[in-house]
Specification:
Layout lengths: L1 H19 L4 E6 L7 H16 L3 E6 L2 H10 L6 E2 L2 E2 L3 H25 L4 E3 L8 E9 L5 E13 L1 H8 L4 E5 L1 E3 L5 E4 L1 H12 L3 E6 L4 E2 L8 E2 L1 E3 H9 L7 H13 L4 E6 L5 H6 L7 E4 L1
Parallel strand pairs: 1-2, 1-11, 2-8, 5-8, 7-10, 11-15, 14-16
Antiparallel strand pairs: 3-4, 6-7, 9-10, 12-13, 15-16
Helix pairs in contact: 3-4, 6-8, 7-8
Length: 291
């Protein structure tokens, strides 16, 4: 009886949030590292199916860096990184597009369907959503650094994306964009998710990865910060508390906040039902960032 009462209390707490977020868009980025745990992925997708079932409109965007590295190794191609980004020549792009748009996207869609949800892959192979341009980074001498077929998202096929959402179906997008001429571009999944959230002015942008959130001291789990304002996040970037791979993720999140996204969440995909705990409970379990 006590266990049943606890369950009822959880549902009662969730009711207010379910009502508030009904028909709101939430962009969920599933990180490449989190994709390595098959059971963890299944739990996360079950949460996404639940969110859609109670009225939210989730949009799933994924990367797949480790799977790409493995496929490149099998093909005898050594990965090359420039300023932390994967240099993408034609041979690399062929592998990246196949792994992301064919293997990972299709498997995520199949998993969602096996859980009783509705999902469709949306990419250059079906109906493209992400529209990109070549990305050039500034070099030390002021010259442009060429990354090959690497791009960033400048626009989205909004009508196609929202039409799918309105049919109670979860769109699954790999981090591959098409340029205006129809050429493929490898784009960073974090910044792609932030761009979609920004252009939709979504209610939430959620980063599911292998870290629980932002720590003031990485070696001390008790320093996890549950709530941050954008101004404080900039200070933490400036003083080096937020560093390495977390920086582009957080900077993209800040741009999304400036454009009207209401909240950013960074949570650990390895924690069972982390999405539901973060979104449908009063306290949450990761780090949320607000304007």
């Amino acid at each position: 009886m006590e266990e049943a009462i606890k369950k009822a209390q959880v549902l009662s707490e969730a009711l207010g949030w379910i009502r508030e977020f009904r028909d709101r868009y939430v962009v969920i980025k599933l990180g490449g590292s989190a994709l390595e745990d098959a059971e963890g992925v299944r739990r996360c997708l079950a949460d996404v199916v639940f969110m859609e079932a109670v009225g939210m409109r989730p949009i799933l965007i994924h990367g797949g860096g480790k799977s790409i590295n493995k496929a490149m190794s099998e093909a005898g191609i050594a990965p090359r990184f420039v300023q932390g980004r994967r240099y993408t020549d034609d041979a690399t792009l062929e592998i990246v597009s196949r792994v992301l748009a064919e293997e990972i996207s299709e498997s995520l869609v199949d998993e969602i369907r096996s859980l009783g949800g509705r999902a469709v892959p949306m990419s250059y192979r079906t109906q493209n959503v992400l529209i990109g341009e070549r990305l050039l980074l500034p070099g030390d001498g002021g010259e442009d650094v060429d990354l090959g077929r690497v791009g960033h998202v400048v626009d989205i096929n909004r009508d196609a994306l929202l039409a799918v959402c309105r049919t109670d179906t979860i769109p699954v997008l790999p981090s591959i964009a098409l340029d205006r001429e129809g050429g493929m571009l490898n784009v960073n999944a974090d910044t792609a998710a932030a761009a979609v959230a920004r252009m939709l002015r979504s209610e939430k942008l959620v980063f599911l990865s292998d870290v629980p959130g932002i720590f003031l001291n990485k070696k001390d789990p008790s320093t996890l910060v549950s709530h941050l304002k954008a101004s404080r996040v900039r200070e933490l970037i400036q003083d080096g508390t937020i560093d390495a791979g977390m920086v582009p993720k957080v900077e993209a999140a800040l741009e999304a906040l400036q454009a009207g996204v209401k909240k950013i969440h960074i949570i650990d995909a390895g924690i069972p039902h982390s999405l539901l705990l973060e979104i449908y409970s009063d306290k949450g379990i990761g780090t949320e960032i607000v304007a």
